[in-house]
Amino acid sequence: MKKTGLIAVVCVAALSAAAQEKADIIASYDVKVRNWDADTVTTTRMSLLANTRQAKYFNDLSLWSDSLSSTPEGKKQLQQIIMAACMTETPEGVTFDMRKGPVKNVHTYVFTSQPDDKLTYYSKFGDSEAYYEEALDEMQWEIGDETSTVLGYECQSATADYHGRKWTAWFAPEIPVAFGPWKFHGLPGLILKAEADGTFCFEATGIEKSDRLMTPIYSPEKYQKTSRKKALADDEYFMNNREAIIQAKFGGSVKFENVDPDRPKYNALRDSLEPDYKDK
Amino acid sequence: MIRRILILFPVMFAVAFACAAQLVNVAGTVVEKGSGETLVGASVVIRDAGGKIKKFGTSDADGRFSIAAEVAEGYTLDVTIMSYAKRTIALDGAEYPLTIEMEPSATVLKEVAVKAARIREQGDTVSYNVASFAQANDRSIGDVLKRMPGIDVADNGKIKYQGEDINKFYIEGSDLLGGKYGIATNGISHDDVGAVEVMENHQPMQVLSGISFSDKAAINLKLKNKAKATWTFHGDAAGGYSWRPEGGVWDGRVFAMAVMPSFQNITSFSTNNTGHDLSASNTDFFAERRATDLSRYVGVGLPGVPSLGSDRTLFNRSFLISTNSLWKFRRGELKANVDYSYNRVTADATDITTYYLDEGNRVVTEHRSGREHTHSLGGKFVYELNEKSSFVNNTLRVNADWDDVGLRTTGSMPNSQSVSLPDYYVSNRFKLLRRFNGRHLVTFRSDNEWESLPQTLSLDMNGIGSGQRVTDHAFYTHESAAYAFTLKGVTVSLEGGIKGYLRTMHSDIPDMPAELPGLTENVVNTDYVTVYAVPKLEYWAHRVNITLNMPVSYAHYSFDKAIADRDEVYFNPSLSLNWKPDNHLSATLRGGAGRAPMNLNLIHPALIMTDYRTLKAGTDEFYNSSSQNLSAAISYKHTRYGVFANGLVMHSWSHIPYTMSQQLYGDYAVYSYADADNDSRSLSAMGSVGKTLNFMRGSCNVNGSFNRNESHLLSQSEAVRSVSTGWSVGANVSGTPCRWVNFDYEIRYADSRLSMNGSGRSWLSTMKNELTLTFVPHRKWQWTVSGEHYRNELADNSYKNVMMVDTKVTYRLSKRVELAANLTNLLDNRSYDYISYSQLSSFESQRQLRGRQLLFSITLRK
Known about the structure:
The complex is a heterodimer. Chain A is of the alpha+beta class. Chain A has helices at about 1-15, 60-70, 70-85, 230-240, 240-250, 270; strands at about 25-35, 40-50, 55-60, 85-90, 95, 110-115, 120-125, 130-135, 140-150, 155-160, 165-170, 190-195, 200-210, 225. In chain A, the strands form 2 sheets. Chain A has a 12-stranded mixed beta sheet. Chain B is built from 4 helices and 50 strands.
């Protein structure tokens, strides 16, 4: 126990020693993805902090929640906030609805660093948190001829075959930052929009100058190193066998109501941003 | 000839190769111009003659890039990087490797608000997103500030954060306006401001950071990029008709602002006769009290209307021009603020004053009609150097005011008064602080001030002329040095200095009414020399700050034979304790006690006429007073929930060995001072809670206050114990519940009572309700309707109700042009009556209001 504490301290010290760079810009993006288990589209709001060398892609609420959870004092505070928001006292008793409170539900962070020539992807795959690294040259763009206007910026098109999908991106040469939402990078201008196959779309909703610090991931010790393809395969397995896994974890004490035996299965080709993990 | 051939050769080569594209390695290094530092992450783009991107890359950790590309004629290389100006290089005939020098320059972003939380907190700074608090009918940033929880803007424009006055107002980090920040809050369009930052515990002098604690907050306006590095202009011009005062009305304003890295300027010009008081834009909220300490004896003012806004009651012609510039040098900065204002105000009133006396009440009725002209010219020139190891500030201030008042009174004592009250003031304040080895601090100060305040009252009563003449000059000088050192959170400092003061006052009443007793001429000198020392101990741990101040001084007063010279020693210790357990809560306890010399303006044995029926005799002795005070303040904030709350309780005791008494001679009231123990106690408490209402982009606030003053007075040789008690509560809520409507609602209720010798008069209340609704049926159209209702208790259960309705239609022709029609006081209410009590009398008044008014306006923006 003592040892883990010591390791955590060393990790935190090492991280704070690493240069915390200031961003030049902050952009907000709406990410629209068709849900795999229902015929609906979910919109998630994400943010990107970037300067000329590196970028950090995250969700505001998750960042806030993780920053609080990184200290024991903050963790307690977060629990109180969530309790206060989610708990309702009724004459029949206390009900608890997690949807009401500021509960983190986006786990993705992407740190892209040009000097290190790699990006680091943090998320929750299945039911465990993990990270993997990826070389920046895996994404290669072809500049197209079309132009389009996003947020008042004239953008040029570019296409890339990336991990099993053909992406079309729109970048603004006026903003000399070679990054974009998610893992997108490597174009001579900020990527304001990217879409693939009509089911995946990232689009900028705002851009401002910013000098916010690009703080590293909070609580790095809870993420395990993995490889991209393994992580995606784990994720698929979890989504298709959620109930069974949870029951196994809690020894069969959890009961699921309204589980439709014919509910759709997660289909990587249709539902995954990177279906190439299915390639043999 | 040979030379010509040599020149021709490369040209021929170029021509030969231009036709066919050629595979080359476009390589080079990107560096900063001047320093030669390599730049990482620059975007390098090769474009063809038509501007199409052919190839691209970025500069690596050494600033180098290398792109293999087919290059043909007309190809260019674009190099861009944030915060540097873009470079475009023709590749025709270029030699590799290239060295590309980039010049630093702000990259202009077309900003589109990032969808983010409305209030964000980072350390000691709270940031409010302006767009999320703004409503369609808002114009200036001041309109939006009012709606931000935790921030309070008084009617005169003064800003408080969590109940405390702010100590600095910055625009993009620069203190351009000093205390006259009303120019900015009333002038800067909210649309040009991206965020309002509140910096808590702001210590404006960098040299003091870590040495001295500040419990004040500062405000910084973060401008949007479109308003930076350029001049922005906007102007309004309006004309129309008013039913009372009958005739044409105008309202115009031009505002220009430049915020550049090394230069800032705000220039504004405003004029109107619509009752809009411009003094809010020209008040120095940080002005320290003038140490020359002169005050006017003659006090003929125009009748005013309390508890109603000036735009309802002011019959004015106003004019204000102000220009403010700031130049930043490599180390210091220079500021010049110059302004001139002119005001002409007319007023009419009928007053009934009742004096409560033991033998029965005495009633004086009068009708007054007057006109006041005020000219004010001010200049402030500041040089400041604000660094971690040294701070220098020299402030030169010059003010000249000319006030003239003419007032005609009919009634029991018909008369006409005319007053001339010019004021001339010059001061220079110099301050130097240096910090050595991070722990030792030395301060030098030198302040010099001069003021002249001549006053003339000419009185015509039934054809008999009389009056009052006063000349009053003072010079004040103050030199001091201080040393402080800090060790492990403890700062010990000692300040020592000398103050000198020379003042001469001369007054004369040439023709005093025969029924009045007393002397008519004063020749008074009140001079002093003070030597003082202020030991100060400050303990500053992580969450607690304790400050102990123990100023001790020795003063020698000389009064030029009128009174015997005096030597006095004063000691005024004070202790303050601040506790900030976390980012949310802050609590402060303060206490102090001490002795102080009396107000030297009160020393004058002979009578001075302050208006046609009031005369005052001062003391012919020198007194000291003593006082104690205790206060506790608490503030709480939770930015993520948008909750801000604060409370304050204050109790003070004072003992003055003299008391003012009032004697009536016919219709004249004569005030004088007599030896007496005058003890008073006062208790006041106030609190406020604010909260954002995110579901409708709004906010709300509830506040209350209570005060009680108890004092002893001598009236007609009888002792009077008077107690005044008052309390008030108020609430406001504003929001935009849906796209096409927003609202602002405010209610305020106040109750007060005065009791004397145990017999109390009844409680008298005032209540005000105010509702503004703005409809935006179309993005080009806007319709605002607002109502104010006043319910004032004149006597026990007798109320005066006044209702005011205004409406305005705005049409936005384009982004730059806006047209509006404004109808105020739709119901054409023309009078307002009220009653108020002072310590020994009651005062009932009938006042005039501005009548219905129609105004057409055009607003232009750049």
